[in-house]
Task: structure prediction
Amino acid sequence: MRKAFLQMSVALVCGGALLPMQAQVSLIAKGTLTGSAAGPNKDLSGLNYTLENGAPANLLGGLGSGIGHVSGDTFVAVPDRGPNAIPYNSLIDDTASYIARVQTIRMNLAPNKGAGLPYTIAPTLEDTTLLSSPLPLVYGDGTAYGVPSGKPALNSLLQNYFTGRSDNFDPKQSSGDVQDARLDPESIRVSNDGLTFFVSDEYGPYVYQFLRRSGERIRTFELPKGFDVAHPGTTTNNELATNSTGRVPNKGMEGLALTPNGRTLVGMLQTAKIEDTNAGGAGANLLRMAVIDIASGKTVHEYGYLLTTGSGVSDIVALNDHEFLVDERDGKGLGDGSKAKVKQLFKIDIANATDITGMDGNTAAAAAVPKTLFLDIVKVLGANGFAPEQIPAKIEGIAFGPDVKQNGTTLHTLWVANDNDFLQDYAGVVGSNPNQFFVFGFTDADLAGSKYEPEGHGGPLSGLGWLNGQGQGGPFGW
Result:
């Protein structure tokens, strides 16, 4: 049985500097998911037709954009806006009418009786849930771009599906209009009652709540008004040319955490806002977090996070009700044709954080939350024989899973997944870029005084805050 431990020593300063910390985190399992009962590279959506860009509507991929733990070995995974790495039409950012969906996966974590890592995982796709609204949504007719309508043929009176098409929005409204059909899911968390899940999105940005069984949107959460852009567009260049404030195109609400008590969501932008970036200085690396009270549906605090080495943040997961792990990374590695460098998880604490609502980026940067390096994924994987060019470029999804026993010691498990951009075969090499899952084990001692609280102890109805009639729009997401 092989153990690989990473010994890290870092220093912490206020506003993003480092405090002394020792951590030992081990890689305990690794697995891939390349197909389902429907066949290789197919999901269980039953969508047996071809998208307008030529890709299958049931293409399996991009699973690591976000993962969330349900219970036991069961997880949910959310792909992003679809297979737009396939050249199609640059005027709509090569996006297609790929229906947004959530994949339910059984991981089958088991002790390894042979050589290699101490545990094995055999990911199995169990279900595919399509995301929809019971009320009408806005779709692009495609005329201006020489493409078909963005409205899925599968739509019915009470099922209006969200898709990745970048022109599925109302040009007369801001990017935060909840009637927009476009959705670019990036993170997912399951409510404590297990009946619903929360999804963050880059387009709006949005944070939505869906029924887990049907995929129906039931609620929209209120984000800071300064997070959206006044003039939505179909491409990155278009939005940058027409907006001077708000989230950067395709870098909206990337990460989402749910506190263990089930009462609070914490959403995080991938990069600094447009105005903070343009102003330069420390504010160009200042990422904003929205702390959302689920009962009211409103943002109650806005905090700042300062990038250290990565180019952006891909996810955030709650250790307890005030401490979190943040996935900071670059875009290098497998899928990019380069060598992975920065894939790091930092621990942050918002217990005594300064609310930065209304502050400009440079002012807010001085009040950023403290952070400590918890895990350097590139180093740990490297110590286990992974070459830098074989480490996925887009390490995007993180979630805690079930505890395991190793040599009599309880290990908490941290699950990490990649977004392979729906490109199973990279650079012409068959099967070279699969959906991958890495499992890391850690103990309470590795948290340097922090307390790890398992998910789901907040009460049986903690995920159904919309039942009290509060929040933005109440049921059905309006």
Q: What stands out?
A: Confidence is low (pLDDT under 50) at residues 1-22, 457-462, 465-476. The chain has four helices and 27 strands.
